[in-house]
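Escalated from tier 1: magnesium ion holo job.
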Amino acid sequence: MPSSPHLAIETTGLVKAFGDTRAVDGVDLQVPTGAVYGVLGPNGAGKTTTIRMLATLLRPDAGTARVLGHDVVDEPDAVRRRISLTGQLASVDEELGGHENLQLLGRLLGYSRRQAAARADELITAFGLTAAASRLVKNYSGGMRRRLDIAASLVVTPDLLFLDEPTTGLDPRSRNEVWAIVRALVSQGTTVLLCTQYLDEADQLASRIAVIDTGRVIAEGTPGELKASVGRSALHVRVLDPERRDEARAILARGLGDSVHPDPDPVGLTAPVADAEEAAEAISALTAAGVPIGGFSLGQPSLDEVFLALTGRPATDETPEEVAA
Amino acid sequence: MSTAATTSPDTPSTTPSEVALHAALASGERPPRVSAPVACLAFAGRSMRKIRHVPEQLLDVTITPVLFLVMFVYLFGGAVAGSTDDYLQFILPGILVQAVLFTTVYSGVTLNTDMTKGVVDRFRSLPVWGPAPLVGAAVGDLVRYLVAASVTVIVGFALGFEAGGGVLGVLGGIALVMLFAFGLAWVFTTLGLLMRSPSAVMNTGFMALFPLVFLSNIFVDPSTLPSVLESMVDLNPVSHLVTAVRGLLGGTADAGDIGLVLGEAAVLTLVFVPLTTRMYRRA
Ligand SMILES: Nc1ncnc2c1ncn2[C@@H]1O[C@H](COP(=O)(O)OP(=O)(O)OP(=O)(O)O)[C@@H](O)[C@H]1O
Ligand SMILES: [Mg+2]
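Tier 2 regenerated the structure:
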């Protein structure tokens, strides 16, 4: 049965268990071609396991997955000919130089020795790695390693690229560089499956997002749809004194209810509000009570709030485990 | 470095330029699929480059055989064989075998280390012949065997070893040891995929190899042993290899001895290559 031609990835009921852990527990995905598709989830959600099954590295326990029209179990080689993978662990050889890595892959992908060297030169230049071309990759900075890792996936331009947390651990500048590369790639027609735990990254790059948690897709849609599903705007307040944040939270809760919650930022608070008036009243309550604030803003709910609305807990919160411990 | 630190080694790389990026992305056309031999050679080249980057990794391959040779010849030579010269004639082919066989354990250690790195995921997601990374590494390891073998033979000659088999005999002996080592290394790559850490592979590997090496005819003539031990030594494939290599180096090569070793190497290869390959793909 041929799958629809406009789908780069189509999975039904994908399952993978490691012992008692159901790492992927019935994932259905429809990833359209020609865009970034975000897979968003916290640590241990099953993102990497999903990618590894789609990239033919891991056999699913149940369910089916078609990648660019080919079944990952029955036709792994056909899949491999059209995909590339930049894994969560650096998927380049740390004991070789950057140029050597690209040249090796060029040879393995069918270029002649000369073509492989020329292609490696071209990518080294394009990815701003000229100064480090012959340096061993283990001596690269995190940002350079990531760029090389992505370049290694583009020795032959793939139809589908898997990127597993490409900006984890990068500084903002390196992160922006990676984002620019992803955008350039998509503008040339490559589909990108991007796994991330950063909500703003998915928001920035992806045209559709699947939110996964404990091996299941708990929401799917465009970033706009996901935000709309929360249905309210978000008021962000920054108090000046972190000591007084709890006090501020209590004051806000009087007008806005229990859903006022602290941000990871020690002076930040976020609360869903129905409209601008409700927000203005909440802010005046704070100033009336004499709690100095550094600033506030009213915006679309972030994906963090989407996650909170979907699961009842923030994406980055470790509290359940801490309570259990 | 002699120059002052005017440029930091961590000089920030230039930001990728938009234009170059788009051009590079547009020109990555897919060439035809690579053939299996070329893929294997590319992976063998990977091992070579690593040796070139860190030549020190050949140090133990080089030093161990020298130590063993000198130690055994001068420490035990007089006691075991009456004279160090006679003992050198007897033991050199054995030390050659031992030096190369010990090196095979590293194939398993290297693979085990590789498996913990993300680069294996990339290799396994490439459209190349599945066993190529393993076969390529095994071919690359032949270089280590060659180094260990050459060092042993050269030191042997320096100490006064006389090869009745001539140049051809010596080359043939080295080739036979390398072939057998190629087969044996697959046992350790299988082990490398079973064990959880490189040091576990190393310990288990040497634990398996020590009895094979010491319960062989490398150091003593088995006819001097109690009969139980003697029959164990005679069954040991390492003894078969040593006998054949002694023949080749000494100019008394026996086709039956060599054939037996070739058969044993073939069995090791045919059993353990598919095993390792299957485990590598499923890992
Ligand atoms: N090889 C394995 N053996 C045992 N358990 C595993 C294995 N790989 C993953 N798991 C478990 O499966 C679950 C999902 O892991 P996975 O790596 O897919 O999550 P993830 O979403 O990629 O997380 P992260 O954001 O931390 O990378 C986790 O509970 C993990 O411990
Ligand atoms: Mg992961």
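Residues 35-282 of chain B form one domain.
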